[in-house]
Design goal:
By secondary structure, the chain is mostly helical. It has helices spanning 3-12, 16-35, 41-57, 68-91, 97-102, 105-122, 126-137, 142-149, 153-172. It folds into two domains: 1-93, Orthogonal Bundle (Rna Polymerase Sigma Factor, Chain: A), CATH 1.10.1740; 99-173, Orthogonal Bundle (Arc Repressor Mutant, subunit A), CATH 1.10.10.10. It is built from nine helices and no strands. Helix 3 (41-57) packs across helix 4 (68-91) and helix 4 crosses helix 8 (142-149).
Length: 173
């Protein structure tokens, strides 16, 4: 029997320890996923926590059909999409001079690299960006990406190829 299934059964019965084990099992992967979707690490943590809150809120209706992690990625993906909508408004504001002056040179380079990659990813259509994030940053296999996104494996491969072509072009510019 699958470990997630056992945990879900225990959680549905109110076993608080099972909730803790479940979160510990999946937290790092969901946090990593959220970090690649937003620049603010503390907001990524908020998105991760919100993912689990949404999952637990619907736990009584949840039917186990395989990989629970895929369902968590779906929830996190939807929350990240909402974040993108809010982030576009925030990015229009300029950062304060105090903040800019407080950054050290190495921190600035790290941030610029991350912003460059994030910017290139943001220029990709959502369906291409999602495949790249799941493959490179979440280290999912193509078959797993197919399951998470609920699309065929050939379509995943096509999107991966298109995303690589577009990213290479964007990063070379």
């Amino acid at each position: 029997m699958d470990f997630d299934l056992l945990l879900i059964q225990k959680m549905k019965r109110g076993d608080e320890n099972a909730f803790d084990v479940f979160v510990r099992k999946h937290y790092e992967e969901i946090l990593k996923y959220c970090c690649y979707h937003c620049l603010d690490a503390s907001y990524a943590e908020d998105l991760t926590q919100e993912t689990f809150l949404h999952f637990f809120a619907k736990l009584s209706d949840y039917r186990y059909m395989g990989k629970t992690k895929n369902y968590l990625y779906t929830i996190a993906g939807n929350l990240c999409k909402d974040y993108y909508k809010k982030a576009k408004e925030i990015l229009l504001e300029e950062p304060s001079r105090d903040f800019q002056n407080s950054l050290q040179q190495s921190e600035t380079e790290d941030i610029l690299n991350k912003i460059t990659i994030e910017s290139a990813l943001n220029h990709l259509p959502e369906e291409l960006r999602e495949v790249i994030v799941l493959y490179y940053f979440q280290e999912l296999k193509l078959v797993e990406i197919s399951e998470v996104l609920k699309i065929s494996l050939p379509l995943v491969k096509y999107r991966m190829k298109q995303a690589k072509i577009r990213l290479e072009k964007l990063l070379n510019e």
